[in-house]
Amino acid sequence: SPLVSDKSINSFENDTNLIFLRSNENPYGPSPLARKAFTENVNISNRYNWDIEAKIISAIALKNSVKDENILLGAGSTEILDLVAKFVSLEKGNYVIADPSYDYWTVTLDNLGLTKNRVPLTTDKKINLQAMLEAVNQNTKLVYICNPNNPTGTICEREALIEFVTTIQQNTIILIDEAYLEFTKQQSLSNLVNDHKNIIIVKTFSKIYGLAGARIGYAIANKTIIDNLANLQSNTNNSVSVLSKLAAIASLKDDKFVSNCYLLNENVKQYTISELKKLNCECVSSNTNFIYFSLAKYNKDYFKQLEDNKIQGGRIYEEQGKWTRITIGKLSEMEKFIKAIQ
Ligand code: PLP
């Protein structure tokens, strides 16, 4: 693979002295075109600019080969996850989620009275689709699949996932979170939403597009579901600022930025994994911009090393095996991270 220099992206340095390896943000973003969109459009922030809403929806629909009616915007995918939680909780029942998976948002499901059904991963830290299927019953309102999975970075093969979603009855919503799919070569499941009226895909501009702080994400689903979710959103398609919408439109055109980020992430991932292995840390093969690894055979106080070196890392997700997660930052940041824990 060609080595892309991170200089080619002209990203600015953070001036806090902290190294952020906790939240899986893009260390190189926003993209140059997104930055230009922010600065060039600041003067129109006095207007609602309703027309921009239609533009971003069309740009997203085009990118995902679906119709405009299949898209709902949110202030980050978190807003969409929350709307899905509210929607499925209108009737009582249970929901099925892998363990560990991305579950901060499920507090809404719990608070609204749904019962959580956690399904352990396979021994190689993959989502166990067969066990998830077995956990679904007639009272299951929602099945959540994070693909690739956060925190483990593992991926479900597309064919297996298609078989999975077609096996589940249409009265159970299947929520597929593709926050990290752009770090893989796998195609989105967005093309299934019109034939499978119970599938919701959730995507975000927070990860490879580098717009985490701009708060923009979206749902892709069949029109009826989109309408149902929109009814629960007080500010339908308008919770995102005009600047963030314009930056997102620009980001979708910045293929060069996305492919550079992909390559940089791959290179820095390889470096980090090989160094972690030298420190006796078992690493799960990663399809994302983070690495899940075990501290079971690491012989220092990992979290103290991070704290002493002003590095924000992840927590322990599984006590057994002491599995933790680290975001892949820039090469210079990962060199500091490795030095800190050596
Ligand atoms: N989904 C997954 C799997 C995530 O890891 C995150 C953030 O880390 C989100 C959703 C939420 O992202 P945002 O609200 O910034 O779109």
From TrEMBL:
<feature type="domain" description="Aminotransferase class I/classII large">
    <location>
        <begin position="17"/>
        <end position="341"/>
    </location>
</feature>
<keyword id="KW-0032">Aminotransferase</keyword>
<dbReference type="Pfam" id="PF00155">
    <property type="entry name" value="Aminotran_1_2"/>
</dbReference>
<keyword id="KW-0808">Transferase</keyword>
<dbReference type="InterPro" id="IPR050106">
    <property type="entry name" value="HistidinolP_aminotransfase"/>
</dbReference>
<dbReference type="InterPro" id="IPR004839">
    <property type="entry name" value="Aminotransferase_I/II_large"/>
</dbReference>
<dbReference type="InterPro" id="IPR015424">
    <property type="entry name" value="PyrdxlP-dep_Trfase"/>
</dbReference>
<dbReference type="InterPro" id="IPR015421">
    <property type="entry name" value="PyrdxlP-dep_Trfase_major"/>
</dbReference>
<dbReference type="InterPro" id="IPR015422">
    <property type="entry name" value="PyrdxlP-dep_Trfase_small"/>
</dbReference>
<comment type="similarity">
    <text>Belongs to the class-II pyridoxal-phosphate-dependent aminotransferase family. Histidinol-phosphate aminotransferase subfamily.</text>
</comment>
<keyword id="KW-0663">Pyridoxal phosphate</keyword>
<protein>
    <submittedName>
        <fullName>Histidinol-phosphate transaminase</fullName>
    </submittedName>
</protein>
